[in-house]
Specification:
Elements: H1 12-31, H2 35-48, E1 52-53, H3 54-59, E2 69-74, E3 78-83, E4 93-99, E5 104-115, E6 118-126, E7 139-146, E8 152-157, H4 177-180, H5 184-187, E9 195-198, H6 209-222, E10 232-238, E11 243-245, E12 251-254, H7 257-271, E13 279-285, H8 302-313, H9 319-327, E14 330-333, E15 337-338, E16 360-363, E17 367-368, H10 379-391, E18 396-398, E19 408-409, H11 413-417, E20 422-427, E21 429-430, E22 438-441, H12 442-458
Parallel strand pairs: 1-2, 4-13, 4-14, 14-20, 15-21, 16-18
Antiparallel strand pairs: 2-3, 3-13, 5-6, 5-10, 6-9, 7-8, 7-10, 11-12, 12-22, 16-20, 17-19
């Protein structure tokens, strides 16, 4: 089946719309490099569109009716937004589900040490990364430090032009004979991803003078002591903003396209959608890159509990109705797919591969090799979704994540499908996936936004 690039259907105004949308997206991923930052910005954008905190609705004993907009967040790292439809929730919702965590490097709980006047921090990488890609790069530190007095200190270092950056050193090529003989997975070991943060000694100290200097800086700027690292959540990410990529500016290079490109487009699709028969939902979860575990991952009861609370605020709660609401729902699991790369064509089967510029990419199944860990969507639901795309003139394509037995990956689709709801994977193709800097096509970003809107409107 022959498909055309989305760029070919755009007139000059449409091209400008695509570029304008990408400017806002670039700002989002430049500003939001952690789950907490994503949730904070999501709440800000939602409030501008009239969304209210579900906790306030409950506390004020308010009743929710068609057209009302509410959000529920948990631990500052996962959030669900609901636009109440005219139909009872019992008959199901239209859900856009994505994740807001990305591969990175985390600071350990007891990280700081000195070695021959150099000050470093121990780390533990998060998610699936090629460790060698993270050395010799300018890195930034984002996160929070929770203090025993109950206060929480926000930390961002390395993003402003006047900020210092930090980094992980690499071995000079002149002395790397032994290193270069190792396999790519062993060139840099996990325990060697230590971040260099200083080298200047504090003159009035007797030992660990450089470490003392860093601790003094932290005390002055953030009022942080060494013991405060025990209750910190600090993430090491690439420093710098998302940039236009390509001489024609048709692409975006940035950190965290997986999966914030789908999170942002899903969020904006919901915020720009009018009230419909079915309740429209955007669910943004944490911990997908490590198995969707924990209280803020898709495997938690957070979303189910939020649905129950909303139905209670609509005076329509029973346990059975919550079960019906979940099983009658339809969901796009909005996660990225692997874009074809001419430098590495052998990993793809071209008839079932996503290409830059051809629009929103749908995957009937993900998983590993024999579809392990996959949802495997029903063809009836796929036909319904594709009809909605064509009705709204959305450019879309279908793809698998590489050749059979080449590898694979998963999404949150199988988790939501456990409720019995219809779920289909749909996302933006990405090059350099899980690298510090990933690349997407601006056309695909825009078509994802438009496609998600078409799903909410027409399903």
């Amino acid at each position: 089946m022959e498909k055309k690039s989305a760029w070919e259907k755009y007139d000059d105004k449409a091209v400008q719309d695509v570029f304008d949308f990408s400017e806002n997206y670039k700002k989002f991923i430049s500003d939001c490099k952690t789950e907490r930052e994503c949730v904070t910005e999501t709440i800000r954008l939602a409030k501008e569109k009239g969304y209210k905190d579900l906790k306030d609705v409950i506390a004020n004993h308010e009743t929710l009716t068609a057209g009302d907009k509410v959000y529920a967040s948990h631990m500052g790292k996962t959030i669900a937004l609901f636009q109440i439809g005219r139909q009872s929730l019992e008959y199901g919702m239209n859900i856009l589900g994505a994740h807001i965590d990305s591969p990175r490097i985390d600071i350990k709980q007891n990280p700081l040490y000195e070695d021959h006047d150099l000050v470093l921090m121990d780390t533990h990488y998060y998610g699936g990364i090629k460790k060698y890609q993270w050395v010799a790069l300018p890195l930034a530190m984002h996160g929070v430090v929770a203090k025993k007095d109950g206060s929480v200190v926000q930390v961002v270092v390395g993003e402003e032009d006047c900020d210092p950056v930090i980094g992980i050193s690499d071995l000079l090529v002149h002395l790397s004979g032994d290193q270069m003989s190792k396999t790519a997975g062993k060139v840099i070991e996990g325990e060697d991803l230590n971040v260099t943060v200083g080298s200047m000694p504090k003159k009035d100290e007797e030992k660990e003078k450089s470490k003392a200097y860093i601790l003094n800086l932290l005390k002055e700027k953030y009022d942080i002591a060494e013991e405060d690292f025990l209750c910190a959540e600090l993430e090491i990410v690439p420093a710098g903003k998302a940039r236009d990529y390509g001489l024609d500016r048709s692409m975006v290079m940035g950190y965290g396209h997986d999966d914030r490109v789908c999170s942002y487009t899903s969020l904006m699709a919901l915020l720009d959608t009018e009230v419909s028969e079915r309740t429209s939902v955007c669910l943004l979860t944490d911990k997908e890159e490590v198995g969707s575990i924990g209280a803020t991952g898709a495997s938690s009861r957070f979303f189910e509990n939020s649905v129950a609370e909303i139905m209670n605020c609509m005076n329509d709660y029973t346990e059975l109705k919550v079960r019906r609401a979940l099983s009658n729902s339809k969901m796009l699991s909005s996660d990225v797919s692997a874009a074809y790369d001419p430098n590495y064509p052998s990993v793809n089967e071209l008839k079932n591969t996503a290409f830059f510029g051809y629009g929103l990419s749908f995957s009937k199944f993900t998983g590993v090799r024999g579809k392990s860990g996959s949802n495997d969507a029903n063809p009836e639901f796929m036909a319904e979704v594709f009809a909605a795309m064509e009705k709204e003139n959305i450019s879309y394509q279908t793809a698998e994540l590489g050749r059979v037995d080449q590898g694979g990956g998963g999404t949150i689709a199988y988790i939501s499908a456990q409720y019995g709801m219809e779920v289909l994977d749909a996302g933006v193709p990405v090059q350099n996936m899980h690298a510090p800097w990933e690349v997407v096509s601006k056309a695909d970003v825009y078509e994802a936004y438009a496609g998600y809107k078409a799903f909410l409107k027409n399903i």
